[in-house]
Design goal:
This protein is of the alpha/beta class. The chain has two domains: 159 residues, Rossmann fold; 91 residues, Orthogonal Bundle (ProC C-terminal domain-like fold), CATH 1.10.3730.10. Helix content is 53%, strand content 13%. The protein has an eight-stranded mixed sheet, with helices on both faces. Helix 7 crosses helix 8. The longest helix is centred in the C-terminal third of the chain and has 26 residues. It is elongated. The model has no long low-confidence stretch (mean pLDDT 95).
Length: 273
């Protein structure tokens, strides 16, 4: 395995998930440098992981093959001002920042290769999926390096940057859609007499199992749905209610709205650079 040296800038939820995944995948603390501005958090990370931990990029970027940027979108411009002083074209920036287009990074960093990504929160349990898009200065080798790193927390898909807003709406925001469905299923299961823990287990495993079947089957979701819904049965009755209430239209409108908002946020980020 190619164990590139990696600096992670911002070790919050997503940066922390990647850190855990990398350590489990075979990277050692010596391979990783953590850049965390909040000193108590930096000290905690040092103690817990054994990784070198610093508070500013200028102390931790030099010599790293890959720099992972995992700050909040509202902090992106301040972070890029710091990175522009130390990043070089021999390094690769892997950006785990929602909604910020590649153009923002390239204006700030010049010819530094940039890989823009959109992970999702199941990365916290190693079950994420991350879409990535390459900037103008990134080569196939740079993409391969990024894939190796991102694979530590789940699957990786390469897409054109123009599709990143759709990716954000489908998989970036998607876990929340599944949780809302789960909330409704659990609540009604309890109302129908199930105890809360049982209702939650039944719902969680059902959603997980359905996802696994979609990944492993050659059939598309509509075929899998039809196999569950025997004519005149309980599933058919439930689906009829969903159809009458416009379930599919609501989901499609929700994904479209999330896509539009992602586009708006990207335009705001680009306008501020």
């Amino acid at each position: 395995m190619d164990r590139s040296s990696i600096a992670i800038v911002g070790v919050g939820a997503m940066g922390g998930a990647l850190l855990s995944g990398l350590l489990e995948a075979g990277w050692t603390p010596a391979d990783l440098t953590l850049i965390e501005a909040y000193e108590p958090r930096a000290a905690e990370l040092r103690e817990a992981t054994g990784c070198r931990t610093v508070t500013v990029p200028s102390d931790g970027i030099d010599g790293q093959d890959i720099v992972v940027l995992a700050v909040k979108p509202q902090d992106i411009h301040g972070a890029l001002l710091q990175l522009a002083e130390v990043l070089t074209a021999d390094q690769v920036l892997v950006a785990l920042v929602a909604g910020v287009p590649i153009s923002v990074y390239e204006r700030a960093l010049g010819e530094v290769p940039v890989i823009r990504t959109m992970p999702n929160t199941p990365a916290l349990v190693g079950e994420g999926i991350t879409a990535c898009a390459a900037g103008a200065h990134a080569t196939a080798d740079h993409l391969a390096m990024a894939r190796t790193v991102l694979s530590a927390v789940g699957l990786v898909e390469e897409v054109d940057e123009a599709l990143m807003d759709a990716v954000t709406a489908v998989s970036g925001s998607g876990p929340a859609y599944a949780y809302l469905l789960a909330e409704a299923m659990v609540a009604e299961g309890i109302r129908q007499g199930l105890d809360p823990a049982t209702a939650l287990r039944l719902t969680a495993r059902t959603i997980r199992g359905a996802g696994t079947m979609m990944e492993t089957s050659d059939d598309d979701p509509s075929v899998l749905r039809e196999r569950v819904a025997s004519p005149g049965g309980t599933t058919a009755e439930a689906l009829a209610v969903m159809d009458r209430r416009g379930f599919v239209d609501v989901v499609r409108e929700a994904v479209a709205a999330a896509t539009d908002r992602s586009i708006e946020l990207g335009e705001i980020a680009a306008g501020q650079s």
